[in-house]
Every structure is written in C-alpha cells, then in structure tokens.
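Help!! Second protein's tokens look totally different from the first
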Amino acid sequence: MFRELASLSGLSLERLASLCEVGEAGSIGQAARGDANRQSLLSRQIAELEAVFGVALLARQSKPFRLTEEGRELARAARTFFQAAEDVRSRAGGEARRVVIGAGETLIQWLLFPACEAVRRGLGEPVVFAFKNLESARLVEVLHQGVVDAALIRPEDAGPGLVCARAWRYEQAAFVPKALSGGTAALRAVDLGAFSWAVLEGRGHFRRFLEERARAAGVRLNAALECSSYTQVALAVRSGRYAGFLPEFAKPYLGGGEPVIRRALESALAYQRGVVLAWREAGVKARPFLAEVFEGLERGLGRRL
C-alpha cells in the first residue's frame, strides 16, 4: 500500500511540506507573504496533491484560500510524520528535539518560561522549547492541526479530540503602588473611579466586568492608561503612577520599581479565570517523549498556579 502511494508522480515530501505551511499560516496568501511567485508555486503544488488524492484540499471558491477539511486532515497527518522523522534525525545526531507550546503572551512569560526551564533541567535529553503567542480561538485551531504540541487554553475551549491536564483557577488581583494605596483595607468598587488604572485595551470580558462594577457603585472606571498586554500593565504599576489588575501569579514580577501592594478585594470585585494544558493524544503517540515533557510541565505549572 505504501509503495503504491509513494510511487505516484504528484506526491512528494516537498508538496506535503507546502500543504503544512499553508495550514500553519492560515491561508495560501499568508503563507506566500505577498510573493506572487511563491503563491503560484504553493497553489500548483497543492493542485498536484489534489490530483493524487482526488479531492479538493484548498477551498478556492472564496478568499482567502484556506485548506478544506480534507486538506487539514492531510496536513495534520503529514506534519505528524515530519515531526516524528525530525525527532529520529535529531536524536541520531545528538541534537535537541523541538517542542512547540502555544499560549497568550502573559502566560508564556510568567508561567511557561519558568516551567519549561525546570522541565529542560529535569529531562535526560536536550529539548528546545518554542513558544507561539496566539489568541484563544487560533490556539485551539493550531492545536488540532498539530502546529503546536500543546497549548494553555481556557477549560471551556478544550473540546473533543484533546487531552488535558487538570484545570487550574487563578484570581485577578489588584496591585497598587504603595505611594498611591492610601491604606490596606479591601478595595471597593468605588475605588475603581479613585485610582488611575492601567487596563487592557479593547472590550474584553474583564474590562467589561470592571466597568459594570464601577457603574453599579455610581462611578466610572478611571482607565487612565490602556495597554495591549498584562506585561505592559505590570510595567505601568511598577512605575508608581498607576494601579492595575493582574493575574495573581504576576506578583513575583512586580519588583524592581516602586513598592507595590496587593490589595484585598471586596466580594463584588472577585474574578477568577481558568487555564488548562491541552494536547492531542495522536501527537504523543507519534512522539512518545512528549508524555514526559507534559508531565513535567503540569508539575511546574501546578507550583505556580
């Protein structure tokens, strides 16, 4: 069976690699990066694969051109092969094997960096970790595609086809520079209008939550500085000029600037989020060493959450 398939003229590792590239980029245009010649080549290579398998692999009826379900299935299988083959080559050459982890930037910097360093030290073989900073919806997509080996996602996003470590819960905590704090009593909703707050830009769920709590208290959220990431919020808090809400595990990263106090919160401001480490069972079957990596990550994350 394998020899018959391998002998077909339109099938090659290069064409399969191109299919994987389009799947990872999201569309053929994004994979080509504005290069018309490259886009033409990718389109032709995928067309040649379509002739081999007798099915449409690229949805050309609408733009941007994305892989069909059959295209994603084939790309997932090809990527698994390439990853397993690369593991064999790396191990034979004494090189580090590569593990790709997806998450938001905050989770990468404050949770995955230290957890992955602990895993690297504990493994009996060299491993290189690569991080992909992606939004939640895209994280789930690339996880199913096999573009990332594992991802930190919300528990509610971990649907069928994924294996998950236990879910962790963490609080959104209020951090206030000591010079602005004015005391250590529990922070009230009315204080959302009193301090100058550094907040995330946009209309995310937590931003709306704070605005609703402020409105219920008869004040307006004093969003004095809008940031694109929690790491920016942390820098703003460390400057001594802004208060900010951050995941509770951010506390060790708030040193090096003005003294910062974590203020207790009245019950109306309590807000929890969840996160889970998820991966595909097929990925671990193809690359068994990942099981030890994920066990180590689960332990490391558990110590920080």
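Here's the second one for comparison:
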Amino acid sequence: MTVTYIPGQEHSSEETWPSPPDPGDLSRRIARRRADLKLSRAQVAARAGISPRYLEYLERYPARPSVLALRQVAAALRTTPAMLLGAGAQGPARHGCPAAVPVTVKLGQAECWRLIAAGGIGRIGFTTASGPLVMPVNFAVVAGTVVIRTAHGSLIQAHAFDQVAFEVDDLDDALCQGWSVLVSGPAHQVLQPDELRHLREHCAVRPWPSGEHEVYVRIAPTRITGRSVEAQ
C-alpha cells in the first residue's frame, strides 16, 4: 500500500483504510513516543503541520515519509528523526510490552562473537573495596579478546589484573526486542612493547572522554554467553 502525502491535505475521520494495519519499526516508535507524551493524534498532527489522517497512516503502515515530514513529526514528538529511525535503540527500556509475548533465546558462542565483533559501547564490571562497580567503556574485539583503553591512574587500570565481567547489549523498547552478551574472564594490562605497538596501530577503539588514554586492557574470556528477546 502506498500513499502520496500532500501537506495540508485533510481527510474525514470516518474514512476507513483499504487494508488491515501492518505497522513497521518507524510506525511503532512514533506510536510509542506519542503514547509516552500522552498526546492525541490531532495534537501531534497540528504540531507537525500534517493531517491527522497522514499521522494515522504513519502509525499503521511501514511508510517512508519525506525527510521534511519526518523532521516535522520528530519535532512534534520532542525527539529527533534519528531516534524515530532507531538510533536510540541502546537506551534503557522505559516500558514493557503488555500486548506481546516475549520469547528468550539462548545464543551460542559464535553468535555472541558475531554480535559484538564490530565493537562500540559496553560495560565493564569488577569488585572494588566498596563493592561491585560497573562502568561504560568503548571497546574493540581483537583476536578473540575484548580490548579497552583507559587513562593512567584510573579505576579500570587499578583493576586491570582482576577477574572482570563485560556486557554488551542492543535494545529496542518500541519493538520489544534486543540481545545481550556477557563476557567473563581475567583482565590484564598490555605491557609488552610489540603488542602495545600493534594495538596502537590497528585497534580501532577511541574513548569518548577527552584526555590521554594510553593504557590498553585486554579481557581474555573464559566464558561468553548471551540471549536474545523477541516479541511474538
């Protein structure tokens, strides 16, 4: 089904759709965001400068709105086009999926490695004198190990020879699906000159915070597990 949208075009609320609802990812995110803000379709449509009928279409079918229309809808929903398109999928879930039945599937080691191979943002966990601590970090996967960079004198360097846990996930609240991978094993600070030089030249891990991050820490997994969750 395709619809050509003309800004300002109005339709009667009594009109029916020619096919049953078949929402896509964008549709679910728009509808979820509108529900979070407790806004009616009419309110969002008025803010976006589009017809309520077109907004209803966006929430019911896998539409491909123009860049302008997507920007207008995002602004009306106090978010960004990127977030509506799924860029914020890693954010913590705010609501459950009461209408869906979540199914959990255990992931094999090969699938776990495939999911984290590209690197990105993860969380390292270790035990301190005051109790367990979890910190977000940038990471890369190199030769079957997880590599992170940190600063001299940091907490991570202080625990660079401990048993640690490392977790990566990708969650989409609007679609009620995602996955999580947990790595556990000993960490060690890389001190060997040749290994350090290789990592500096070839390891694409760049911490977001400013400053020097010349300490490289490897996590050698003794166990890697994961699971995925999908709404049926």
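Reply: Different proteins will give different token patterns, so don't panic. The longest helix spans residues 25-37.
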